TrEMBL record:
Organism: Poseidonocella sedimentorum
Protein name per UniProt: Iron(III) transport system ATP-binding protein
GO annotation (BP), single: quaternary ammonium group transport
Residues of the full protein shown: 1 to 257 of 375
Boundaries of every ABC transporter domain copy: 22-253
GO molecular function, one term: ATP binding
Length: 257
C-alpha cells in the first residue's frame, strides 16, 4: 500500500516484520534428573501463529511456562522483540514481559463481575481502567455483559471474557495452552477463529499449544512438532502434514479426517 511517506514507513515496517515477536533458543529443563524440555528453539513472527503440537506429556506446557517466566529454564535464551527476557544470568520478571496467557480452564474469578474480571488484567493501570474495559468487552462481542457474573455466562462467553482480560495489557505475545479444548465442538470453531483474528489484527505473536493435529492444521502459520521434549519437525502445516518426518509423525497425523 503506497502512501505519502511510504519510504519511511516501508523501512519501519520491514524492520518490524523481520524481527520475531518471540524467539526461543536452545531451551532446556530437567525435573528430577529427567530432561523434559530438550534443546527447544522456535520463533513467532508478529501477527502469526506458531503451533507447538505434540502428544500429552511431551513438554509443551513446561516450555510455555518458561517463556511466561513462571518456570525457570536450566539453559537457553528467550527473546521478545529483540529484548532479552532470560539468558540464564539475567531474567525479566513475568509481569514485565508483556506476555499474555490463556489456559484451558478460563480461571475467571467467580465472585467478580465480567467488568471486574477484565479490569484485573489491567491492575496497575490506574484510573483509565473503566473505558478500556468497555472497549475490550466490545472487541470480544460482549458489550452488554459488563455486570454479569461468570456463572451467568455460557462457556463461549466465559472464554471471551478470558480473552478480553488477556488482551487488556496489550501483550506483544499471547501464549495459549489448549485454550479451546474445554469448549464443545459447535462453539469451538467460531471462537478460535474470532480469537485469532483479533490477535492478528493487533499484530500479536501467538504461540498456541495443542495436542490435536487438526487444530494445528487449521490455526497455524508455522507448526513445531514436539515429541519427548524435542522439536522433531518444523514447517508450514501443509508441508508437515504431507511429509511427516517419520512413522510416528505419520501415525500422529493419521486420525485427522
Ligand atoms: P504437556 O504440556 O506436553 O502435556 P508438560 O510440559 O506438562 O507436558 O510435562 C512434561 C513432563 O514434565 C511430564 O512428564 C510431566 O510429568 C513433567 N513435569 C512437568 N512439570 C513438572 C514438575 N513441576 N515436576 C516434575 N515433573 C514435571
Ligand atoms: Mg500441557
Amino acid at each position: 500500500m503506497m502512501q505519502q511517506g511510504a519510504i519511511e514507513s516501508e523501512t519501519v515496517r520491514s524492520e518490524a516484520d523481520e524481527a520475531p515477536r518471540l524467539e526461543v533458543r536452545h531451551l532446556c529443563r530437567r525435573f528430577d534428573g529427567r530432561t523434559v524440555v530438550d534443546d527447544v528453539s522456535l520463533s513467532v513472527m508478529p501477527g502469526q501463529v506458531t503451533c507447538l503440537l505434540g502428544p500429552s506429556g511431551c513438554g509443551k506446557s513446561t516450555t510455555l511456562r518458561m517463556i511466561a517466566g513462571v518456570e525457570q529454564q536450566d539453559s537457553g535464551e528467550i527473546w521478545a522483540d529483540g529484548q532479552m527476557l532470560c539468558d540464564g544470568r539475567r531474567t525479566v520478571p513475568p509481569e514485565q514481559r508483556r506476555i499474555g496467557l490463556m489456559f484451558q480452564d478460563f480461571a475467571l474469578f467467580p465472585h467478580l463481575s465480567v467488568a471486574e474480571n477484565v479490569a484485573f488484567g489491567l491492575r496497575g493501570a490506574g484510573g483509565a481502567a473503566g473505558g478500556r474495559v468497555d472497549e475490550l468487552l466490545c472487541k470480544v462481542g460482549l458489550p452488554g455483559k459488563r455486570d454479569a457474573f461468570p456463572h451467568e455466562l455460557s462457556g463461549g462467553e466465559q472464554q471471551r471474557v478470558a480473552l478480553a482480560r488477556a488482551l487488556a495489557p496489550s501483550p506483544r505475545i499471547m501464549l495459549m495452552d489448549e485454550p479451546f479444548s474445554g469448549l464443545d465442538n459447535r462453539l469451538r470453531d467460531g471462537i478460535r477463529d474470532e480469537t485469532l483474528a483479533l490477535l492478528k489484527a493487533e499484530n500479536t505473536g501467538v504461540l498456541l499449544v495443542t495436542h490435536e493435529p487438526e487444530e494445528a492444521m487449521r490455526m497455524a502459520d508455522e507448526v513445531a512438532l514436539m515429541r519427548a521434549g524435542r522439536i522433531v519437525q518444523k514447517g508450514a502445516p501443509y508441508n508437515i502434514y504431507n511429509a511427516p518426518i517419520d512413522k510416528d509423525a505419520l501415525a500422529f497425523f493419521s486420525d485427522i479426517n
